[in-house]
Amino acid sequence: MATQRLARKVKVAEKRATATKKPLRRLPQARSSAPTRKVTSLSPTVSDYEAVRNLLSRYCFALDRGDLGELSSLFHRQADFSVSFENGQKHNGRNTIHSWYARFFQQRPNQYQYMRHKLFEPLITVSGKTATASTYFDSESKDTTGQIQMITGRYDDSLVKEGGQWYFKERTITVLYNYSPGSGQEGMR
C-alpha cells in the first residue's frame, strides 16, 4: 500500500513537471498601422529658428559698430535690399549693399554716435532652407548737436540657408517714424 501511494505521488509529480515544461505560447507581434516619418534635413529645427534670430541680432550689432565687412557678410551674394525712404529702389548683390551702407555713413559723418538697436520679438517662419522674418525695431543714436535721435521701423526679410549658414536673401527696411526726445549727455551725472 505504501508502494502504491508512492507510485501515485511520483505520477502526479511527473504530470506537474511535464505541465511546466510545455513551451510558452508566443503573442503575435504588434504591428503599427501608422506610416513611419523620415526626418530629413529640410525639416525646420529649433536650431534653424535660433540661427535666424542670431542673424537678425548680428545685423544690428554690426550696424551699431559700423562694421561694414561683418554687415555685408550677412547678406547672400545675390541678395536684394531696399529702404522705404528710397521709393522702392532695390540694391542687388552683396557688394552693392556694402557700397550702399558705406555711402550712407559717409554722407552723414558723426550723425549716428552711440547707435543702439532694439529688436522686438520677430515673427519667423522656416520652411526647409528658406525662411521669412518680420521684426519691429527701435534705433537710437546721438547726433553732433547732442540730440538723441530715435528711428522706429520694421525689417521684412526673406532668408536662405546655404552651406549650413543663414543669409539675408531679401531685406526691406520700412522706417515708420523718427523723433528726438531731447538732448543726451555722455556717461553718468
Number of domains: 1
Topology-level CATH name: Nuclear Transport Factor 2, Chain: A
Which structural class do the helices and strands define?
alpha+beta
Q: How much helix, percentage-wise, in residues?
A: 25-40%
**Termini separation:** 116 Å
Biggest sheet statistics: 7 strands, mixed
Overall mean pLDDT stands at 82
> How big is the Rg?
35 Å
Count of separate DSSP helical elements:
4
Number of strands: 7
Basic shape: elongated
From the coordinates shown, what is the CATH architecture? Roll
Low-confidence stretches: none
The SSE order reads: HHHEEHEEEEE
Strand content: 35-45%
What is the CATH class name?
Alpha Beta
Distinctive features:
189 residues; alpha+beta; seven-stranded mixed sheet; 4 helices; elongated
Description:
The radius of gyration is 35 Å and the shape is elongated. The mean pLDDT is 82. The protein starts with a helix and ends in a 6-residue tail after the last strand. It contains four helices and seven strands. The chain has one domain (46-183): Roll (Nuclear Transport Factor 2, Chain: A). The chain is α+β, with helices and mostly antiparallel strands. Strands 1, 2, 3, 4, 5, 6 and 7 form a seven-stranded mixed beta sheet that branches.
Layout of helices and strands, plus pairs?
Blueprint: H1 2-20, H2 46-65, H3 68-73, E1 75-83, E2 91-92, H4 94-106, E3 113-119, E4 123-127, E5 130-142, E6 147-162, E7 165-183
Short précis:
With 189 residues, the protein is an alpha+beta fold.
